[in-house]
Hints:
Elements: E1 2-7, E2 10-13, E3 18-26, E4 31-39, E5 46-52, E6 58-60, E7 68-73, E8 78-83, E9 92-100, E10 109-110, E11 114-119
Parallel strand pairs: 2-11
Antiparallel strand pairs: 1-3, 3-8, 4-5, 4-9, 5-6, 7-8, 9-10, 9-11
Amino acid sequence: QVQVVESGGGLVQAGGSLRLSCAASGRTFRIYRMGWFRQAPGKEREFVAATTWSGGSIYYADSVKGRFTISRDNAKNTVYLQMNNLRPDDTAVYYCAADLRGTDSDYDCWGQGTQVTVFS
C-alpha cells in the first residue's frame, strides 16, 4: 500500500506565498501520478495540479496557472506545491493523492488534508 501525508498549510495574507509538501511512503514504486486537490467550505472538491512520476508531464487548473508550481523529488518520494500570489478564494483544505499502477481508479490513496487560509 501507499500512504501520503501533506504539510505546509497555514494562515497567509493575500499576495503571499506558501509551499505545500506531500510525502509518500510504502510501496511507492507503484506511483505513476501524484496530484493536488482542494475543497473550500460548501464547495465541491476541485483539481489543482498533477505530475507524472516518470516523464514529468504536468497539468494545472486554469485558476492557478501562472501562480502555482508543482514539482517533485523522486529520491524523497515527495511532491511540492509552490503557491504564489495567493488570493482569498484559494482558501481551502488541500489534499495530496497518489494514482497507482494496476488499479481501475484514477487516484487511489489520499492524504488527510492541510488547511490553507488566505486573508485580505
